[in-house]
Amino acid sequence: MFKTITSMTYSCSSNSTCGCSLDSAIVTKIIGGEEAMKNSWGWAVSIRIHNNHICGGSLISSELVLTAAHCIVLVKTISSLSVTAGSKYLSMINQQRSVSQAFIPFNYDSTTYTNDIAIILLSSPFDMNDRSLAFICLPPSIENYPPDDMTVIAIGWGVLSTTEKTSSDTLQQVTLKTISNGISACHISVYNENVQICAGVQGGGKGMKKEKILIFILDNICCFQLDTCRGDSGGPLMMFSNQRWYIVGITSYGNGCASPYYPGIYTRASVYRKDIGCFLKNETSCIKKKFLVRNSVSSCSMNYLLISLFFILIKIINYQ
Length: 320
Hints:
Blueprint: E1 8-10, E2 25-27, E3 34-35, E4 44-49, E5 52-59, E6 64-67, E7 81-85, E8 95-105, E9 118-122, E10 151-156, E11 172-178, H1 184-187, E12 196-202, E13 213-214, E14 221-222, E15 225-226, E16 236-241, E17 244-253, E18 264-268, H2 273-280, H3 284-290, E19 291-295, H4 302-319
C-alpha cells in the first residue's frame, strides 16, 4: 500500500531555466485528481482545432510544443490548429499562436500507439516575459527512465467522467506512481515497455474497490472521434527531481475512463531525448531522418498513410 499524503508542496530552484513555474505546485493524493493551482504548471498548453480544445502539450521552448502523435496525425489541415498558453482556464486565453509545422516520427504506430510523440513548431514564439509561462525540463537519456514506483504527476483538461461531454475548463492534476510491467494490468496494456510507461495509483476512490489500479482520465483520438475521457492526450507526465520538474511521459492511451482495472500508458520521453534535441538545436538533417513534416498547406494525412502502408508492406515481406 502507498502512504496517504494530505498535501505536498514542491518548491523549485529559483536559478533553474526550466521545470519551475511562477508559483509552487501543491498536490494531494486525491483519487481521480483535483484542480491545479494557478501558475503552478507554466508549460501546460492547450492544443485546439478551430479554437476547440483537443489535446494537451508541454512547452519545451518559446516556439516548440511536445505532444502526442495521435493528436496530430489525422488532423485535416495544420492551419486549423492553434496553441494557447499561460492560463489554467480553457475559457480564458492569455497567449495564443497558430501552428506552422508539426512533426511525427516515421515509426509512429497508430495500432499500438508506440512512438506516440509529436513536436509542434509555432508560427511565432510565445512571449516568455510573461511569467505565467515556463519551459519543462527534458529527462536524461537513460534506459527505462523513470524507475518503477516513482511519484509522478499528470495534468490535463480532459473530461472528468464518462457522463461529461466537454473538457474541464480548469486544469486538473493527479498524483500517480510508475508501475512495473510485471503487474498484470500493465503487462496486458503495454505494447513496448522500452518506449512506454505504465502509471496509476493503488487503492480505491469513491465507489471503487481497494487494491485496484485507477488511472487518471486518458483518451484516444482518431479522426476527431474521441474516446470517453477526451482532452488529456499529449499532456505531460512529470517527475520532480533536483528542485525542478522533468517531463518523463506523454499521455498516450488508457482503457475507458478512469477504469479501475487498467493503468494509463504514457510515451517514455527519455527515449526521444536526442531526437527532441535536434529540434532545440534546429538540426534540419537530423529532423528529416526521423520525422514526417506536416505544414500549414498539407491536406489530410495522405502522406503519412502512404508511408504507414509502405512500412506494413516491408513487414509483410520480411515476415515471409
